[in-house]
Specification:
The chain has 11 helices and 13 strands. By secondary structure, the protein is α/β, with parallel strands linked by helices.
Length: 289
């Protein structure tokens, strides 16, 4: 199994030397382990070049199976740890950007104080990717809108507002709450959230389509572009906290809400470390922004 774990680390870091250092091996040992695995499978798994290391076409086809093997192995290890007690373990989660920025630091600090031996693997994504990661076992749980997922168990945590984001001096900033039909006629910068996006649902509900000029998978890049006067947007109030951008923020009319839930395949099969972290999260949810 160590060979698969080394392969996973090489893919994550794009380097034999960095992976070997992270796992406590020499680079020669890591290379020998990969060579052994490639020899056993009779398939080259990695491309090696000056630009770094990447999966071959064949390796990319096999890699999801390797990840599932690793996940099953780690789950078995954590089940054994559960019997012994939560001295160690790994929490694999898929948060949204706003959750990573404004919920995770405090939650992780408090949890690590209680369980210092637990490690975290965090894959930040959108509703589509997080749902897929939950289903394939790449993460134990993720943060989603229940309306955006299927085939996943969800527990609602909190509901937050979404706000119109305007450059300073924009004509629509005169409104206390910006009408969506007026916002739709402006050059709109769309946050790519996968197959579901609350503002698009809100536009559709009143029978209008936004004038989308840009689609971007990064909230902070959108703030920069709005600040530069390239358009307007709608973002979660949570991601807009503690920013230094020169922006005008307004509620919309009708208002747009975002429901955040924790989602997983099956609570009973969650590793103990992840179950404990979810319990910690739920105990702190009233204090979270």
């Amino acid at each position: 199994m160590n060979r698969y774990l080394v392969l996973q680390k090489i893919v994550q870091l794009g380097s034999f030397s960095k992976a070997a250092e992270a796992m406590g091996y020499t680079q020669s040992a890591a290379s020998q382990m990969i060579a052994s695995l490639e020899g056993e499978l009779s398939i080259p798994l990695l491309n090696r070049s000056r630009a770094g290391v990447s999966l071959t076409i064949e390796g990319a086809k096999l890699y999801p199976y390797f990840e599932r093997m690793i996940y099953a192995y780690m789950a078995a290890q954590e089940a054994a740890q559960e019997i012994r007690g939560l001295d160690t373990g790994v929490v694999r989660m898929g948060p949204l950007a706003s959750i990573s920025a404004h919920w995770m630091p405090g939650l992780l600090r408090e949890f690590k104080a209680q369980y210092p031996g637990v490690e975290f693997v965090i894959h930040q994504g959108d509703y589509t990717s997080i749902q897929e990661w939950i289903k394939t076992g790449a993460v134990d749980f993720g943060f989603v809108n229940p309306a955006a997922v299927s085939g996943v168990e969800t527990v609602v945590l909190k509901q937050g507002s979404m706000l119109a984001v305007l450059p300073e001096g924009h004509p629509l900033s005169r409104f206390d709450a910006v009408p969506l039909e007026l916002l739709a006629s402006e050059p709109f910068i769309l946050l790519e959230e996968g197959h579901y996006y609350e503002p698009l649902e809100a536009f559709d509900a009143i029978g209008v389509k936004p004038n989308v000029k840009y689609t971007i998978h990064d909230d902070y890049a959108i703030m920069t572009m709005v600040e530069a006067g390239l358009g307007v947007s709608i973002l979660a109030e949570l991601i807009l906290r503690r920013t230094n951008y020169r922006l005008v923020l307004r509620p919309t009319e009708p208002p747009i809400a975002r429901t955040i839930a924790v989602g997983y395949k099956d609570k009973a099969s969650l590793p103990m470390a992840s179950r404990k972290f979810i319990e910690h999260l739920q105990s702190k949810v009233d204090t979270l922004p």
